[in-house]
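Section 4.2 – Deliverable D4.2 (structural model, holo form)

The reporting period included a commitment to supply a predicted holo structure for the target in complex with adenosine monophosphate. Inputs used:
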Amino acid sequence: MLNIVLFGPPGAGKGTQSEKIIAKYKLAHLSTGDIFRDHLARQTDLGKKVKEYIDNGLLVPDELTVGILKDAMLANTGATGFIFDGFPRTVAQAEVLDQMLTASGTPIKTVVALDVNEDVVRTRIEERRKVSGRADDEESKVVRRIDEYYQKTVQVLPYYEKQGKLKKINGVGAVESIFDNISSIIDAAK
Ligand code: AMP
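Output (structure tokens):
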């Protein structure tokens, strides 16, 4: 079982790199952002509960996020591993994930953190806004999402650093060369 966390600020390239990782390593993709967007589109009860948070660029409360994560993992029990994209975003989420994976004897093997500075992140999201149609890619929401990242989500980095699992790589450059660096880390962790 190969469980990997792909970490980074909004616009770091997590979605792009996840697709390539999945194709190469045949892992199940677990993006909490994608799952939430699916609930929003289908206007489910959960979608209605999380809409305000997501549209405003705020983190969804942990109990709701952990709930969808557990469901998605249970729906993929045959997976040979997961790539966690956009989860965990708080230390509490990281702790729950560890508890779940430790219970099943399949702990996180490595955490790849894409290092991208704030100016690059803003420019990339600005570009994505032209095509994504995402309400939370609007300028005022982007500022809040980036703030949420620097206030809450970065605290997850020392959590994994203490476990010796954190691998930071430069997230600026050609998609292929970033992917080569990610692949080397995954191959070494396997
Ligand atoms: P993303 O596509 O990963 O940028 O996620 C889009 C939005 O979904 C975020 O801005 C949050 O509002 C929400 N979200 C996604 N994943 C999480 C998470 N792990 N914890 C809290 N909120 C999340």
